[in-house]
Write a structure and sequence with these properties.
It is built from 8 helices and 6 strands. The chain is α/β, with parallel strands linked by helices. Helix 5 links the parallel strand 3 and strand 4.
């Protein structure tokens, strides 16, 4: 998969004028481990590590050594909770400019080893509860201050960042999450970030409701990401009538 991402990411876009001629890939899934081959490809395409903006209930920077396995092997070390740990150790993630958001995960063991290891990998942690004190605007500001507007950034959205009462179709649900409206509001507020790739993952249709609300939310998030890229491209190409930061009321709703 790393080779596939690299091949796709190395193509010249049909409209390649401006400061960013490289294509941007949006991956839909599925298992969150897909982020590792994407980051490997981005590292080769951009020639440097990128920041990671990670929306998730869980850290996903887990050291595989902290999980017992009857068949220990390099293959068993790679899973949907360790891919950022592997990426960090491979030098793919920009240490000190990355962030988790929406966390409410349990920790392994009875200490703070998971957070200590996460600190070593250079992530800022924003908990799900922080939105009560900061609001969506505050969360947006913290993320922008952390990452900056020029840093190449990989956006990774695990659908379980949203409360399972609204998005039940995921394999590792955690109560106490954000609403879909809150997450969409935050994603819209981050349109000025230099997002060079993205994924929306851990959607499990077998666990979704009759109304397929998880799939609908994931589709809307994909729409938000794609339209933000289109808007950014229009701005770079100097299209008349385009204004950065389009008010939410003017955006199409699915």
């Amino acid at each position: 998969m790393s080779e596939a991402f690299l091949e796709l990411g190395s193509r010249t876009p049909a409209l390649s004028e401006g400061d960013n001629p490289k294509p941007k890939l949006l991956t839909l899934g599925g298992d969150h481990s897909i982020a590792l081959p994407a980051l490997r490809a981005l590292n080769k395409i951009h020639g440097a590590p990128v920041a990671v903006l990670h929306f998730d209930a869980h850290l996903d920077t887990w050291n595989p050594a902290r999980y017992s396995d009857a068949w220990e092997s390099p293959q068993s070390d790679f899973n949907h909770g360790s891919m950022f740990w592997i990426a960090s150790n491979e030098g793919l993630i920009l240490n000190g400019s990355s962030a988790h958001a929406g966390l409410r995960t349990r920790l392994t063991g009875d200490g703070w080893d998971d957070h200590i290891d996460d600190d070593r990998q250079g992530f800022l942690r924003i908990s799900s509860d922080d939105i009560d004190d900061l609001g969506t605007k505050g969360i947006i500001n913290v993320i922008i201050e952390r990452i900056g507007l020029e840093t190449p950034t990989y956006l990774s959205i695990d659908i379980d960042v949203i409360d399972p009462g609204l998005c039940p179709g995921t394999g590792t649900p955690e109560p106490g999450g954000w609403t879909s409206r809150e997450l969409i509001k935050i994603i819209r507020g981050l349109e000025t970030l230099n997002v060079v790739g993205a994924d929306i993952v851990e959607v499990a249709p077998a666990y979704d409701g009759n109304g397929e609300q998880t799939a609908l939310t994931a589709a809307q998030l994909g729409f938000e990401i794609l339209t933000s890229w289109v808007g950014s491209g229009m701005k770079q190409r100097g299209k008349s009538g385009f204004t950065a930061g389009i008010p939410d009321s003017n955006k199409d709703e699915l």
